[in-house]
Amino acid sequence: MYSQWALSIDDAKQIASACRACAVENGWNVVIAIVDDGGHTMYLERLDGTQKASSVVAQEKAKTALLFKRPTQAIEAVVAKGRNVMMMLPGATPIEGGLPLVRDGQFVGAIGISGVQSHEDGVVAAAGVAHFATLS
């Protein structure tokens, strides 16, 4: 089944806005990365005071969520259970904060968040996914 739905730059900005609102509400300085269905960065925003390395980490989390078709937390959990070889998978960033964007069963993009504790990055990413679900 092929979806005609594609992530637009306006969608990416709206998703990022929902992520930013969550981060600001919690006092978290983060980087927000939105990638398209090919894993290419569509939108990147680094909130003031966020460490610079988080710009790369957020993009890698988003790519991982898209390429592996699952939240990055799922890969992190497997590693935490002792399957360290998972860290050797090309393109895998096994740290919570990356979530895929799925529409009509198709992976149309992903969100990556970096800058605070990984479970907090996950909360910010989830706010973006929740907003994505409202887009038509």
Which labels suit this protein?
single chain; 136 residues; globular; alpha+beta; 20% strand; Beta-Lactamase; 4 helices
Structural commentary:
With 136 residues, the protein is an alpha+beta fold. The protein has one domain (9-132): Beta-Lactamase (2-Layer Sandwich), CATH 3.30.450.150. The protein has four helices and four strands. α1 (9-26) packs across α4 (118-132). It starts with 8 loop residues before the first helix and ends with a helix. The mean pLDDT is 94.
Write the layout of secondary structure elements.
Blueprint: H1 9-26, E1 31-36, E2 41-46, H2 54-67, H3 72-80, E3 98-103, E4 106-114, H4 118-132
Helix pairs in contact: 1-4
Q: What is the number of E strands?
A: 4
CATH topology: Beta-Lactamase
Helix content: 40-55%
Main sheet: strand order: 2-1-4-3
Average pLDDT over all residues: 94
Q: What percent of residues are in strands? A: 15-25%
- Can you tell me the residue ranges where pLDDT is under 50 for at least 5 consecutive residues? none
Q: Characterize the largest beta sheet: strand count, sense, and whether it forms a barrel.
A: 4 strands, antiparallel
In the CATH classification, which architecture applies?
2-Layer Sandwich
CATH domain class name: Alpha Beta
Helix count equals 4
Structural class: alpha+beta
N-to-C span: 19 Å
Apparent shape = globular
Number of domains: 1
Could you give the order of the helices and strands?
HEEHHEEH
What is the name of the CATH superfamily? Haem-degrading domain
Radius of gyration: 14 Å
